[in-house]
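Before the break, one more example. Copy the sequence into your notebook; we will annotate it together after we see the structure.
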Amino acid sequence: MKSHRYPALCGALFALSALLLVSPSSMADAPVQLGTIAVIGTGGPEMPSTVISADELRSWGASDLAQALSLVAGTTTTQGSDAGPAGIGPGLVGAREADDYLLVVDGVPLGGTTAPPFESISLADVERIVVRRGPDPVIYGSSAFAGAVYIYHYPAGRSAQSLSAEVGSYGSREVTASLTLPSGETFRQSASAVIQQQRYSDPRGAMDRYQFLYRAAADVGGGALGVDVGLLDLRQTPLSPTPVTDAGLSPDVAVDSNQNPLGAHSNEYRTQLTLNYLRTVASASWASTVSLTHVDNAVLQGFLGDDPDDGDDADDPVDADNAQGYSQERRLNEAYIDSHLTWNLDQDAALSLGANDMYSNGEAHSSTFDYFASLTGSMQAAPGDVDDSPYASDKRNFFGVYLQSSLRLLSTLSADIGLRENIIDESRLTSSDDDGVEMNDRRDSRLSEGASLRWRAVERADATLTPYVAYADTFQPSQFDFSPDPDDSAFLLPETAHSWQLGVRGSAADLEWDLSGTAVEFGNAVTAEEVAGLPSFVNAGSDSFRDIDLDVDERLSDSLRLTFSYEYVDARYRSYNLVDDDGDNVSLAGKRLPLTPNSVSTLGLLFGRSEGLSLAVLARYRGHSYLDQENQVPANGFVTYDCKLSYSGDGWTIYLSGQNLSDRRDPVSASEIGDDQVYRLFGRRLEFGVITSL
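Here is what the structure looks like once it is written out:
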């Protein structure tokens, strides 16, 4: 295959740098310590990005990634999806699909060629989370399409050094341990482990997580060599979305009912090995990373059809099956290679030059079937006879060479400029009992670019004021999620994004604030449609997104902190024709994107110190939206409340936390598989836990 030469180029760059490594003239006097991480990308680390520290995660009571992301201004993060109860939608730029976002864990993009596995993330031993709204296309190319989430664990040799135990609603329980292992001056290691059994208001829904991370670093050859080993065993019983009718959510489908077939599951088994090396070479800092991942997925789930009630008694399968299901065994191998050099030319300029490659090779064996699903969830039906046995394999290679520069034009004026040449290779094979075998391949080459400008208009000890502007132009190849629909063999047009961001951030005494406006034009947007009751994807024309974000954080006293955020959102179709149930073309131009609220706001109050009593209260408002593409079915805005009460002593903490205390069950995210079906908010949850330092 032609694409094989691009990993070889990255490997050659890695080897060339290794040759430089052993050159006596390039040996550094002191090793570069692993664990110092800079977020390199459009705008550089000084552009507005929300950083959530481990202390803030604990203080606000964020126990999973969805709760952590909900602390970020302008997000509409949702929990529960077709990926199972652990699946989340980041919601950084409207109600975009999960595959539009970049997920980077300790410098490695996860699911860079497919879809980011947000469900695989736990907060065990996380040191900080960095969230950037809008494209960041230079380092990671087409993967950084609509926004990015960077997760950093404590580096090797450091950890949260704690043990925690928690029990919660519906029989949930969790044990987490993070500890620093025996280390020396030239060798450092640490590890974390999670055992979690999460249950939900849906009595059939479940998520069991068994996760382990080992990190080691050693001083080698004048630099720092790092080794990470990650293991995940994630077992889920999926939830069911609720159908949408012309009058709203279907009254025939009970809240917390589950229409999945008997034995439904959505399991993920993930193994990852990462090697990275950081050192000084001559006048440059050289960093290289190699990461290999193997993923096995086993899925059995189903969704109600267009007309689920086939008789007067919803629990009596009188005429025909009313649901479609599928089972799938999927295997995916991923590789990520990156090597780059960074020169600090002087105090006014820095330059990074590098190349990386994201490669994936996956296959899926599926079977589809019809079955009867009780609308009340009182009866679990076994899967019906197999209708079709589709097979799909897909190889993807995203290679790129990138250049990033940071310049200080004046003492108060700075600029960042980034360019990346992307080369995309993909080959796909699909087969089914009815359609036979189809093979397709594609190669594409495109340039991504980004630029930003910052002006430190005021920079005093008691006040700062920094206006900024940023632009990015990027694209991503159409997604392929190994759907059991054989019609997904054809390649869709790549999605494109052109974005502008204009804002100003500042501080005064104990007050920090940020006000920004963002405009994004999405082209060739991919959306999910149903084909014979099973998922399929089509290019849906173009969308436009406009928003205004305000983020305020004020420390009222040593023990009292107030936060407020507000986002006005206008996300609409620009051009898209929908084929309705009657076969007629309906223009959606000017219609709002479904389940995208017109406004989002959060008010938070945090009281307490490092020891003694602490209280955190969060109120979140999610504004009006529509449940359908034609904007005929409105959904009202609503408010949810979270709270955490804790007491800390010398090396220990006990806490009681609650999420969605008002027990709202409103619709928040759409299913990509179930046609015109939406997932609701999780029911009210209480958790009691103990944390002790080790």
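Residues 1-46, 310-319 have pLDDT under 50 and may be disordered. The CA atoms of residues 76 and 91 lie 5 Å apart. Try to locate both features in your own notes.
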